[in-house]
Amino acid sequence: MIINIRKFREKDLKRVMEIEKESFDKNYPEFLMMHIYSSFPDGFLVAEDENEKVVGYIIALMEWGNGHIVSIAVDLAYQNYGIGNALIKSVENFLFNECHAKHCVLEVRFDNKKAREFYYKRDYVDRKVLYNYYDDGADAILMVKRRFDLSGNYPIFVNMW
Predict the structure, then answer these.
(1) What is the pTM of this model?
(2) Quick one: pLDDT at residue 64?
């Protein structure tokens, strides 16, 4: 399978929202997706197949000197082909090398074992439990990946919106 990672375009929104709704019980609304895109367009990437069908996306921001991965999802029919890995590698490369982020951070549901394993394989570590993080009262884990060449200790500030 040939996958191309590229920057999000506004015409991709409908397909991104389909993947979002398929992937998560609670969805980010379209206006928030577009707000994030307008505030940091280089952090919104999509994966497309050889027919130019969008099959996944990742959204990231820069906050307080750190990259913040807001959301990542892959169409269920395209999972386990390395698309999520390609998306996260692309956004990390941009955040670490172009934006000079010290860390990449993300929040994931405490009980989402599949997602946590995905991040552990990519060198993310648990940093802190975020109690009652989600609207339904579920807890999250703040996960962090340190820039590979970072020397010294730097605080990690995260905007919890």
Answers:
(1) 0.90
(2) 86
